[in-house]
Amino acid sequence: MRDTYLKKLYDLAKRNTEVVSLVSDNGLIVYDDFRRDFPGRYFNFGISEENMVAAAAGMASCGKIPFAYTISAFIVYRAYEFLRDDICFQNQNVKLIGIGSGLTYSTLGPSHHTTEDIGILRSLPNLTVFSPATRTEVEWMMEKACEIEGPVYIRLSNNSKEYYNAPPSFSLGAPAVVKEGRNITVFVTGSIITEVMDAAAELECAGISIEVVSVHTLKPVDKKEIIRLLDKTKKFATVEEHNVIGGLYSVIAEALADEKVMFPSVKIGLNDVFATDYGTLQNVRYANGIRSDQIALKIREFLDGSI
């Protein structure tokens, strides 16, 4: 996803001279093309995320379109006050890009995990929140972020798999169907889609047909479209590499409650805990109950009524 972001950022900067790139000492070599071709529009703030976010707000107030990029945990948690007061409260046209969503930095532990950012940032007025599951979604979000006059947050991971056979007609706030199914709708956001798709394949072998829906926009949310999608299976699961409190499950449950609709459901994610264990991403996902086989088992148990 990072490479897709960088290529799209370069493209946007080539088309629009107001686009500027801000980083916080993140892998300078990957910005070589941008620095070479747009030297006056690249700013490295070092390990100083608060300053980067505050400067981005200042640049936006002067008509620039800043894309501020760093590790998700730092741009959300460390720079939160600046994000809230300088960007969202002022409704500045800043694009915040966090790399390493969920458990991506699996070897570095909870200090580098980003498993509460959805809940934290959804509560901020004026902020659009994107959570791409594939490269195709990243490309669409970058274009959309440039069109939106106001603050945007995009949470990136290291997922490189693509599940769309052809780019669908994405719409702001409307979830996208990645895989058709009959028995249950599984809402997913971000790179955990890789585990969900593997779980769906396992369940298909057992005769259980899964509809997989990517909730790429976490704010705003098209409530009517969520209900329309659920009219097909009339039951759902949410799968997220995030705390289920304030995360994707909250997004879907709030939408249904607002529309006075109810469907049987099961939530799969971190249950009010920080992630445990260290190691590969697969190892950490397994330790926290969100690997594909564990997801498949929970969905199976939900459908047969044992949970």
What is the secondary structure topology, with strand pairs?
Blueprint: H1 2-15, E1 19-23, H2 32-37, E2 42-44, H3 49-61, E3 65-71, H4 72-78, H5 80-88, E4 95-99, H6 117-122, E5 128-130, H7 135-147, E6 152-156, E7 176-179, E8 184-188, H8 193-205, E9 210-214, E10 217-219, H9 223-233, E11 236-243, H10 248-258, E12 265-270, H11 281-287, H12 292-303
Parallel strand pairs: 1-2, 1-3, 3-4, 4-6, 5-6, 8-9, 8-11, 11-12
Antiparallel strand pairs: 5-10, 7-9
Provide tags for this entry:
307 residues; alpha/beta; Rossmann fold; seven-stranded mixed sheet; five-stranded mixed sheet; 12 helices; 12 strands; globular
Concise overview:
With 307 residues, this protein is α/β, with parallel strands linked by helices. The protein has helices at residues 2-15, 32-37, 49-61, 72-78, 80-88, 117-122, 135-147, 193-205, 223-233, 248-258, 281-287, 292-303; strands at residues 19-23, 42-44, 65-71, 95-99, 128-130, 152-156, 176-179, 184-188, 210-214, 217-219, 236-243, 265-270. Strands 2-1-3-4-6-5-10 form a seven-stranded mixed sheet, sandwiched between helices.
